[in-house]
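Pinned message: reference record for 4-diphosphocytidyl-2-C-methyl-D-erythritol kinase
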Amino acid sequence: MALHQDMAHAKINLYLHVTGRREDGYHLLDSLAVFAGAGDRLSLSPATQGHEEHLTLQGPFSEGLEANSDNLALKAARGLRQAQEATGNTFPAASLLLEKHLPIASGIGGGSADAACALRLLTRFWHLPPEMALRVAPTLGADVPVCLAQKATRMEGIGEILTAAPPLPTMGMILVNPGVSVSTPSIFKRLAATGGIKTRGPLSLPKEGWPTLDALITFLKQTDNDLQPHAIAQEPVIATVLEHLAALPGVRFSRMSGSGATCFALFDSADCALKAAEHLAEQHTARTWWHWAGPVLP
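Predicted structure (tokens):
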């Protein structure tokens, strides 16, 4: 029986601006990230044998994944162990069960969320202070630190500069993935080959936040996802997804998240999103697409 369980929620980029590029090749970004109710589930139980963590994969999107050292959840577990054992401490081994419900390489931070979830579970299991997870998270990937708290956050730099987002309105969301994986490095190569980084003035988020969804949408219409046109050039079906989302009853705003291919649509409430999802499921083109509808986490 699992001793601890937690959800690795999908991370959605409401906007994503590429603001620069460092000498080491990493791109600088500015993004407002929120978290949806959709997510993977990770369970932890004491290991019955062995001296390090091992991972079992289940769920609709586990096919094609390997439970080896390349898996971010297992890499997080072993990274946290190594960091602690370097101080002379020893810890009991853990068995991790990852249920994959989020599409792979889909622009919603699934692997990073899994890694952050593993860090949260193991800090509880090993009775470590939360700052231990914060130290290890940046070594695993640019999106892992923001996924630790799973709260609306402005991300800057390469993802390491995190600022709590101003208050957001209550809203519902639909996520749709058409079943294609998008390579983030290839999208950035397309960006570089087609004019590179767009020049913008500084972007300010209102300190008082957005009291209504109307106010948030007015703000979002002044922003972009700089990677969206390049993802569409690689996978034109993304444009088809966006067309379907824009035509749904009650939809307020739609855009691609991250480097794709998952797209999102915003609604006045989770109930509105769920009703719109029923219309989406009835459309012939969309019947094979993965979709989720529900709340944006507070």
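Pinned by admin. Summary line: The two ends are 30 Å apart (CA to CA).
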